[in-house]
Design goal:
Elements (H helix, E strand, L loop, with lengths): L2 H22 L4 H18 L4 H8 L5 E4 L5 E4 L5 H27 L5 H26 L16 H11 L5 H25 L6 H19 L6 H17 L5 H7 L10 H17 L13 H16 L3 H25 L22 H26 L11 H10 L4 H10 L6 H39 L1
Antiparallel strand pairs: 1-2
Helix pairs in contact: 2-3, 2-13, 4-7, 4-10, 4-13, 5-7, 5-14, 6-7, 6-17, 8-9, 9-10, 11-12, 13-16, 14-15, 14-17, 15-17, 16-17
């Protein structure tokens, strides 16, 4: 009887772990967690008894201190807070995994050939240009003008998550199209951040970073496959980017394209060694030991070697993407949402997306219209031009109505849009910059929500209409 509570407790843990794994494997799980973190962040930033704690926590110093030879304290990284730790260090890991995904798709995925890549890439460019033009038309000549990059991004987690919930209402070819488009969109967003949203560039430090990148590239070409030879230079490159004025997260993208995509051991070597160690396992089976359990000492050595060879037969880039994916999806991205979605709302004017100030501009209007109107318009129009000019192929078994409906989901900007918002308006006074960024975040959330609802409703209605034919 005494063992019953312990048995119940351990069974409960096993059931919880099973449910956790089942939930995390759902394609919409990341979107649900991110949405929950947005709600929590908004509450923490606005409730009277939590907002001071929330903002003070984000502004807490988060740096290492070293004692210099002259006795002075040296801080590294300089000026780092909890918020900047998330945005500059943890988001570097996010961009690293995005870079790995883009590179994988470029090698043997939906972007691996000109025929496969042309349609979603053209559509992605249309989905970037149209929102930027709408935002610029609304905010030209105002303090908000530099935020044109905010409504240009698509959040792949939310978009694909909604498609998975809609199930067979969307043709598989359009699901592949939107996924490839979102990946190409990420690459364009990375270029936009790198080119337009960096600081004043220190060309000396940048030159050192470029030389180190060239050295790593040569090392890769020479066949080096050991992880530490890439990890240590990656940290140095991050520091050089951080202090050179290029946004430090771009170092993650650069390193993603330098990590080896070929395995340490080729197929022939792997099969030969596997056969050898399997034979040794059988030979060691009869060795007398103090324990009759499997595996004995020599067999454990064989199994360790087989494990090492199996690991070496998988390219480093694939191993890293697989290992880091859950950490990025269920830790780093929720932390990013908690740190950046917490906007303090002083009055209801923040929710008026059509509010326009002659001096500040209409940052909310530009972002909202850019996501809700610009993204689907740009994606659809670019796709139409590509098909008519025979530069791309219409996704199989897809109608133009359904493609336009799916394009509406491209207006879900969230992660990348909020990230660009945190980098925007740096040319303004601190209080103006803070207000524009907060209004921009609210507009991103509202625009993304409306785009998701609009896309889902249109897909459902079009599916019903086309199903009757």
């Amino acid at each position: 009887m005494r063992l019953f509570p312990i048995y119940t407790w351990t069974k409960g843990i096993r059931n919880f772990d099973h449910r956790r794994r089942k939930f995390s494997n759902q394609p919409w799980a990341q979107g649900v967690i991110l949405l929950a973190c947005v709600v929590i962040a908004m509450l923490l930033a606005n409730l009277p008894f939590t907002k001071d704690f929330y903002h003070n926590l984000l502004e807490t110093q988060f740096s290492l201190f070293f004692k210099a030879p002259d006795g002075k304290d040296v801080m590294f990284p300089r000026g780092m807070t909890v918020e900047s730790f998330i945005n500059d260090i943890l988001m570097t890991i996010f961009f690293f995994t995005v870079g790995l995904e883009i590179r994988r798709e470029m090698k043997n995925g939906e972007l691996s050939s000109l025929k496969k890549a042309l349609m979603p890439v053209i559509a992605a460019f249309g989905g970037v240009i149209a929102p930027a033009l709408i935002f610029t038309a609304v905010n030209h000549g105002t303090a908000a003008a530099s935020g044109w990059g905010i409504p240009t991004a698509t959040d792949i987690a939310f978009a694909v998550g909604i498609l998975s919930i809609l199930g067979d209402k969307v043709p598989v070819s359009l699901k592949v199209f939107l996924t490839a488009l979102a990946i190409a969109d990420d690459l364009i967003a990375i270029l936009v951040v790198a080119i337009f949203y960096g600081g004043n560039i220190n060309f000396g430090l940048l030159s050192i970073a470029i030389l180190l990148i060239i050295a790593i590239l040569i090392m890769n070409k020479l066949g080096e496959k050991r992880g530490w030879y890439y990890f240590i230079p990656a940290m140095v490159i991050w520091a050089l980017f951080y202090y050179s004025g290029i946004h430090s997260t771009m170092s993650g993208v650069v390193m993603a394209f330098l990590v080896p995509m070929t395995p340490r051991y080729n197929e022939a070597y792997f099969h030969r060694k596997r056969v050898q160690y399997l034979q040794r396992l059988n030979e060691y089976n009869g060795i007398a030991t103090s324990s009759s359990e499997f595996p004995n000492g020599p067999q454990r050595h064989c199994l360790r070697r087989m494990s090492a060879i199996s690991k070496g037969a998988v390219p480093m880039s694939y191993r890293l993407e697989h290992a880091m994916g859950p950490w990025v999806n269920f830790l780093i991205m929720p932390l990013f949402a908690l740190a950046n979605a917490g906007v303090e709302i002083p009055d209801v004017s923040y929710f008026n997306v059509f509010n326009f100030d002659p001096a500040l501009g209409g940052v909310s209007m530009g972002i909202f219209l850019g996501l809700l109107v610009g993204k689907p318009l740009g994606i659809s129009l670019a796709s139409f031009i590509a098909v008519k000019l025979h530069a791309g192929e219409m996704p199989a078994k897809a109608s133009w109505k359904m493609l336009i409906a799916v394009a509406c989901l491209g207006g879900i900007g969230f992660t990348m849009s909020i990230f660009v918002d945190t980098l925007s308006f740096g040319d303004q006074a601190p209080e103006v910059m803070a207000k524009l960024r907060d209004m921009g975040k609210v507009a991103v959330l509202m625009g993304s929500l409306c785009a998701g609802i609009l896309g889902s409703v249109l897909i459902t209605l079009i599916h019903k209409v086309e199903g009757r034919k």
